[in-house]
């Protein structure tokens, strides 16, 4: 085990199962956002939690402006962790931009993953009419970047409210805001630029790993049209529309999130068992 990588990404292992589940945070978040989900799976799986470099309790000295100027740098973090832990056929669960980071990691090393679970994913946040509606105009993203630079605390307050879009759960909004505010504004802005200006639409068709897409209801960040687009262009994928609203169901609706992931993995196990039995006959 490469302890340098373990320390760099603040990798933590829990659970007692044979198969591993990697929980990848979304933009501006650390591994603590997975608390409820991790606890629900730890009896049946080995849980791998980590922080991207620059976030949470990662090694800030390892942050490199060039490496993390694109999602490829964050995907390399995931690949490094998988290599350090000698993983094979792990379930990758990514939230938001973490989903596309998992996609990129799987393109380089599909052997590390048995399944991808994408919660509120988006391959491109910018509208590209007439055939693609990502949810944002370029001017809106540029305005977001400008606000991050001029008034980071104000941005954190507004953006956390937009992301959660759930007045009934002010606690989730506050948790997100606190995580945003605990991050270096320069690092957060660069990650935002890498995420919101990325276009991974052409990568979807190359994915070889079976995938589950969890699409929230009334999600401002990743609208329903995006979830449908991914399902149409991602081979061997399943789309589930959640009752959960907003963009962070793993925090606001962990029970439904866990239930849908478990249901998908159980069905995949049954299908694999039937296929194996068929090969033996």
TrEMBL record:
Pfam hit, one: Abhydrolase_1
Family annotation (Gene3D superfamilies): alpha/beta hydrolase
Ranges for domain AB hydrolase-1: 21-254
Protein name: Sigma factor SigB regulation protein RsbQ
Family: Belongs to the AB hydrolase superfamily.
Organism of this sequence: Neobacillus cucumis
